[in-house]
Specification:
Length: 536
């Protein structure tokens, strides 16, 4: 629901025309705005008194930069922000739908597949948020909106900027809603020390509310609710099994005993698929699977011990059809030679790949600077973001690599990306296990795909396989799966190349993308989108 603008409200902010008020909170007002391209957006304008606090601006800038890296998996995408504007503001995707609290007030508690969708959707959002190094700090039913039936979490990424600013932090002023606050919030909020486990606790309270129309520690007053949170077990009557068992774990008093958001998704998705339950929508399952691969940057809170990762005995299914979401391809064994030797295979069915427990994962849509960065003005070449993708271009050098994440990926791993050869004679390059001057290099060209060892003296031990339909401008999904010392390269679902990784064997390294100029034209170009990297 949108209210009219008030007399003191601006008509425009940062190039966004303001159409009405969506709400107001402790940090400022939220407006419905229209971007220059006509898109409706939500514009959160910070209260003027905070704008003059340099500490707040610094915190706001830092938190917004992190929030912009949160992938839009069941979250409202952060579109724009200006922490240096006279009145700092944040622009996010406008979700035209009711909140979870409005749905419950109108229709009563959720059941069956609707309840399961909320549980999975909100956990997916937390996994995406925590994977970008952000903590929500104010998860509640009012911050869960529904867009075409899919839950989306809003208002993450800026609460910390307010809360840890010393001038505005007092014992009577905490960001959050008492009924959804973890026990440690009442002891550490005034010091600004809150970990991601507090968001997981809030998830348990939100799901309890969705299923029962009450919170698990509900009492007659905020003070009494806080006392129950600190001292009493939760009231989970009315929650169906096995969801009740999962929720109970998230509401543990000790944050070390709660699952992380990614472990929570594991619990929700790794259930017995033979049990009967209403399935969650496929698009939500795809978002959950993608969010599971974002635990690389998940912030660490005050976890005082290791959580025992046990399977809930007798637990039934919460979600059907989770298997097969992460597609890959069968690896065919080659001979025992330590040199690279080609072995093409016929296309084969795609079994599931699972990220290793605690293993690294990187996901980036490559539609703007993020894990991979632009590089302009280099005579040897450059990397730019255009048309919603990362484009690598050569200049004076025959090869140009874009700057990617510095994290080293080790052991078994899977790399997938949409690669497009943009000019004749160019090849899209994917470097993996890169360290120093050496890396393994997969080159997707117009008529072939190649795998070799990239050294200071050039590419050696290269093997090749033919590809069809490789006209410039066509995006191809390239997947590289490494098991022990064997690699398989798949293009558009066809496993074209399986080979041993030769000497010197490289056990770990970074992943990045770039372009190879096969005909030394001086203007070779290749583009990349939807990158996913994970340890298996």
């Amino acid at each position: 629901m949108t209210d009219p603008l008030l007399p003191g409200d601006p008509a425009e902010l940062g190039g966004y025309r303001l159409l009405g008020r969506l709400g107001q909170g402790g940090m400022g007002a939220v407006y419905l705005g229209r971007a220059a391209d006509g898109r409706l957006v939500a514009v959160k304008m910070i209260r003027p008194e905070y704008a003059y606090d340099p500490e707040f601006r610094g915190r706001f800038r830092s938190e917004v930069n992190r929030a912009r890296q949160v992938p839009p998996f069941c979250t409202a995408e952060v579109l724009d922000a200006d922490p240096d504007h006279p009145t700092p503001y944040l622009v996010v995707e406008y979700v035209d739908g009711p909140s979870l609290s409005e749905v419950i007030a109108r229709n009563g508690p959720l059941t069956g597949g609707n309840l399961h969708s909320v549980a999975v959707g909100v956990a997916t959002a937390l996994a995406a948020i925590h994977g970008a190094g952000v903590i929500h700090r104010d998860l509640k039913p009012g911050n869960v909106l529904f867009a075409l039936g899919t839950p989306k979490v809003i208002d993450f990424g800026i609460a910390r900027a307010f809360e840890v600013t010393s001038q505005h932090t007092r014992t009577d002023q905490m960001v959050g809603t008492v009924a959804y606050m973890a026990p440690e919030r009442f002891e550490t909020d005034r010091h600004g020390v809150v970990g991601p486990a507090a968001d997981v606790f809030a998830w348990g309270a939100v799901v309890t509310y969705a299923a029962t129309r009450r919170t698990p520690f509900q009492a007659d007053s905020p003070a009494a609710t806080a006392a129950r949170i600190l001292t009493q077990p939760p009231d989970l009557s009315g929650l169906p099994d096995p969801l009740r068992q999962v929720v109970a774990r998230t509401l543990a008093k000790d944050p070390a005993e709660r699952p992380t958001a990614h472990e929570l998704l594991d619990l929700l998705l790794d259930q017995d698929t033979d049990a009967k339950s209403e399935p969650v929508r496929p698009e939500l399952l795809r978002a959950a699977a993608a969010a599971q691969r974002t635990r690389r940057l998940a912030p660490r809170g005050p976890r005082s011990g290791r959580m025992r990762r046990t399977v809930l005995a007798g637990a039934g299914v919460l979600v059907l059809g989770a298997a097969g979401l992460l597609a890959a391809h069968t690896l065919a064994r080659s001979d025992d030679s330590k040199s690279l030797s080609a072995g093409t295979t016929a296309p084969s069915p795609a079994p599931s790949l699972r990220r290793a427990a605690g293993g690294a994962a990187i996901i980036d849509r490559l539609d703007r600077p993020g894990q991979w960065r632009a590089a302009r003005g280099d005579a040897e070449g450059r990397c730019v973001f255009e048309n919603g993708r990362l484009e690598a271009r050569t200049g004076m050098a025959p090869v140009y690599r874009c700057r990617g994440p510095a994290e080293s990926i080790a052991k078994d791993q899977a790399i997938s990306v949409d690669a497009t050869v943009l000019t004749p004679g160019a090849c899209a390059g994917i470097w993996f296990r890169s360290a120093g001057a050496e890396a393994y290099l997969v080159s997707l060209c117009e008529t072939e795909v190649r795998l070799g060892v990239d050294t200071a003296d050039g590419v050696v031990n290269e093997v090749k396989a033919a590809v069809t339909g490789g006209t410039p401008g066509r995006a191809r999904r390239v997947e590289i799966v490494v098991r022990r010392d064997e690699a398989t390269v798949t293009v558009d679902g066809a496993a074209l190349l399986t080979t041993r990784l030769g000497e010197p064997y490289r056990p770990a390294g970074t992943v990045t993308f770039g372009v190879v100029d096969d005909i030394i034209s001086g203007d070779a170009r290749a583009a990349f989108a939807r990158a996913e990297v994970m340890e298996l």
